[in-house]
């Protein structure tokens, strides 16, 4: 802690100053993951702040997922995810992307079922007017850290039971000879809603990337429509450009 050289500034509540100081030290790695924070009493001595102020700053760090508090063994810095570069030129799946990085991916199904399609889904997926759509919303994690929330819609003709998607949609499609060969992806900026932020363990209103992907089979038929929000504090989308 002493290496992060705390200095009280004038202006703003003191707990917020200490919070910001520790937040930036954690985010830029000066305070590494698993570092134990000094006890409240010790922090009060080091900073000249009251224990109430220290407690308030630490509680906020805990709420924001930067610090983990364990009864009896004090507080320590939570594991942070470094920014990740995601190529925009390869049609890969979340599971494959994480595997390539040596991370363990996992998915939590937030909702899943067969629904009446929206007008957009009817058009994009080429559904008959009385057709149905398989839809699944998943919270996607790497090494236990939530990175994105994705909703995928597919024709029930291709995926009659979305609950069977389980871990990897693309793996399931590949096994059935329906892996997409091409996709159009659109990326826009968005802010996380309260519900999205809670799932992604960040703050409401934080910047994120809204991505929508329409993926095609070699026949030209759309197989997948996926929309998702990706954490803006983690993802960098990178494309190689060539002189036209
Ligand atoms: C990626 C795709 C998403 C696809 C998913 C399949 C982006 C922006 N989106 O997250 O469209 O449905 O991979 O992943 O890359 P899975 O095979 O692990 O289920």
Topology:
Blueprint: H1 14-27, H2 40-47, H3 51-63, E1 67-70, E2 74-77, E3 84-87, H4 94-100, E4 105-115, H5 119-125, E5 133-142, E6 145-155, H6 169-175, E7 182-191, H7 194-200, E8 207-216, E9 222-231, E10 235-238
Helix pairs in contact: 1-3
This protein binds 2-acetamido-2-deoxy-6-O-phosphono-alpha-D-glucopyranose (16G).
2-acetamido-2-deoxy-6-O-phosphono-alpha-D-glucopyranose (16G) binds next to helix 4, strand 6, helix 6, strand 8 and strand 9.
Protein traits:
two-stranded antiparallel ribbon; 7 helices; binds 2-acetamido-2-deoxy-6-O-phosphono-alpha-D-glucopyranose; Chorismate lyase; 244 residues; Arc Repressor Mutant, subunit A
Short structural summary:
The protein has helices spanning 14-27, 40-47, 51-63, 94-100, 119-125, 169-175, 194-200, and strands spanning 67-70, 74-77, 84-87, 105-115, 133-142, 145-155, 182-191, 207-216, 222-231, 235-238. By secondary structure, it is an alpha+beta fold. The strands form three sheets. Strands 4-5-6-9-8-7 form a six-stranded antiparallel beta sheet. Strands 1-2 form a two-stranded antiparallel ribbon. A two-stranded parallel sheet has the order 3-10.
Q: From the coordinates shown, what is the CATH architecture of the largest domain?
A: 3-Layer(aba) Sandwich
Strand order of the largest sheet: 4-5-6-9-8-7
Strand content: 25-35%
Fourth CATH level, the homologous superfamily of the largest domain: Chorismate lyase-like
- In DSSP terms (H or I, runs of 4 or more residues), the helix count works out at 7
CATH class of the largest domain: Alpha Beta
**Sequence of secondary-structure elements:** HHHEEEHEHEEHEHEEE
Principal-axis shape equals elongated
Bound molecules: 2-acetamido-2-deoxy-6-O-phosphono-alpha-D-glucopyranose
Helix/strand class: alpha+beta
Compute the separation of the termini in Å. Answer: 51 Å
Mean pLDDT reading? 92
Give the domain tally. Answer: 2
Estimate the helix proportion, in percent.
25-40%
DSSP strand count: 10
